[in-house]
Amino acid sequence: MKNLKWIILFISLILFLAITENVFANEITQLDIIGYNFISKNFITVSLTPLVKFFTNFGSIIFLLPTTLLLALIIKSKKISLNIFINLIFITLINQILKFIVQRPRPSDFQLVNETGYSFPSGHTMISVAFYGYLIYLIYNYIHLKILKWILIIFLLILIIAIGISRIYLGVHYTSDVLAGLLITIAYLIIFINISNKWIKEK
User: Structure pTM?
Assistant: First the structure.
């Protein structure tokens, strides 16, 4: 169990690289077609779309930056507050670097909202997994009231999943964009948490 996190990191990186290689080889993968067809046939409705448009903003840097500043006022530990901010900046930069390397155009046939920039990997997915994933880690380790702890953890997990699905629903990302964003950010979070923990524990 001690090495489980490194096994997860290794598997996540391998799967991310496999998806990336497939994206380089094919503009639209079979995974993308299956993912969008499933969501479009089972979820997309006129009444649900406005809610999804609103909900997807919880994974944007525009929402999460002021949220980070608010958390800095609430959290007593300045090191943890700084870590939350650094985490947000790092994952945003990593996402932009990966987008520039791959340069995959966004889907153009079924967008429900207008988005610019490259598609792979999904920025909203990476940012939400990194930001809310790190909050989940902090909640698990620092909140001792079990009921509150698990309510918050489950809520944030649902939020992460919903944001990822919303990007496919709105037609601004392929399924492989979202899945790759999830995988690379899991690997990133393991490294970030490991390094940041050592700094937090330093006197």
Answer: 0.91
